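FORM 7B - TANDEM STRUCTURE REPORT

SECTION 1: FIRST PROTEIN
SEQUENCE AND TOKENS:
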Amino acid sequence: MTSDATPSNLDGQSVLILEDQVLIALDIEDMVLDLGAGVCWVVSGAVTALTLLETKRPDLALLDFNLGGRETSEGVADRLMDLHVPFVFLTGYGDGLVVPGRFGGIPIASKPVTKATLLTKIALAQDRFRSERMV
């Protein structure tokens, strides 16, 4: 699949959602389930996400980068990279989000995010991780 070929749904995939704002997390979960995800694990903190990753391996993750000003999702992103799980950063900072260089090429979606934008960013993330496996 190329980045131009946006999937029409998530075909039963499992999705980790890391978002510290409850209403936003519920909105994203509803959107992902509407797009066909099979299961969503919604967590509000990095420690909880890392604990979940000890026993579960999602097909995809959506990570709020800044978690309530107290922490970021960088450690979770590092673990997902180790596991070769595609992910998208979500941010309320729009184009102002600057991520560390090791996350270059990771798609970033501004909140509030639409289904169409989410699907496009997910396709980009999946393509990126798929191409890394081929190298």
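SECTION 2: SECOND PROTEIN
SEQUENCE AND TOKENS:
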Amino acid sequence: MNEEKNQKSEARIEKFVTIAQKVGNQIHLRSLRDGLAPMMPLFILAGIAVLINSVFLDPSGFMNNVLSESTMVTWQGFGNLIINATLNVAAILFVISLSYQLSKNRGYTNPIGAAMAVLPAFFTFLPMLVTVTVDEKATQIGGMIAYSNVGTSGVFAAILVGIIGTELFIKLTTVKRLQISLGENVPPAVANSFNVMLPAIITVSLFALLSFLIQLGGSDLMSLISRFIQEPLRAVGTSLPGYLLLVCLGNLLFSFGIHQSVIAGPILDPLLLLNMNDNMAAKAAGTEPPHIITNAFHQVFGSLNMASGSTVALIIAIFIFSKYQPYRNLAKLSLGPNLFNINEPIIFGLPIVFNLPMIIPFVLSPIIGTVIGYAATSLGLVSKTVVMIPWTTPTLISGYLATAGDWRAPVIQVLIIVILVFFYLPFLKISEKVAIANAEKA
């Protein structure tokens, strides 16, 4: 009877895993994840620029006795150029990267051709008139591209154009009547450009026509997408309940052997990056950052530097409280990688995967870190995260850097780790007893 129940339980788990894998491997979600990856170094560079401008070149900061105010303000321009070239053109970079990755995932042989067709399609979504303030008077100017439209606020438009435009373009290139052949003696680069000429023209023209009709009605697609798609999704996904649901779901998948980035990455990462970019831009402009939950908040408090389940606390619990030698040996091997947020050794070695006593704290641990970090930030006990940091940045250092030098952030991280050590402890003891019993039985 027990064997039959176990078989049914294993069958249900296997079915769940299969469904999750299918969802994670869905081509558009996979392309979103692949498209974001090449942009991370640029966002980190923007974060470094914000950090330098806000900490070392802040006229009211600790360097005011070393450098003159005029010198610091002048050199802030260098950081602002970097911010404009990375953070404030994020939507342009993303539509190129997404189209290229989606084309590759579709097996299309000319991915750069698709990206070159989709990029101008994205530009057709921009408003023809941009409102600027001159001498406290709002004025509309034509023939201008505003950073505000091609930065953070344009990311969801980039996603829609990148996916729909690429799919349309690839579909059109399969229509033989739309292919222009110049013969076999023509260089391949020239032949490829003529083969995709008509599909590119049709793709851009269709997007331009749609945008033109919307603008005739007094609005623009960029604003409509932001108002009715981007902001509602962001309000749900980066609210405290929505964020916790997605992060815990990602950890649940990881506990069944599916990396959390397969599901949470394509859904959560774009929303967190939007908030992160807003905060970096606000800090660079000298205004109050608007968001608590960001990409850096996730690293610093939610998952303690991208270590799913905050497994650094589990390793500390093993060192302090465990006498089971196999666990202690594994903790020694896992400590080095874990310091730089590589936690697969402990997840698959202990294991946490398919180990019910350890799955429970692994899935629920983000709630503790997130609630403490969120409460501390909302109460003003710690600064908001305004600097994009590499995911391998060690804990404590990460808190200090992500908050642009707030020493209280590492203190909050230490508090979270201490609480998580005792949260993991009873489940660790149960897991030890199960492991010992299984070893004796074997």
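SECTION 3: OBSERVATIONS ON SECOND PROTEIN
The two ends are 22 Å apart (CA to CA).
The chain has a mean pLDDT of 85.

SECTION 4: SIGNATURE
Preparer initials: ____
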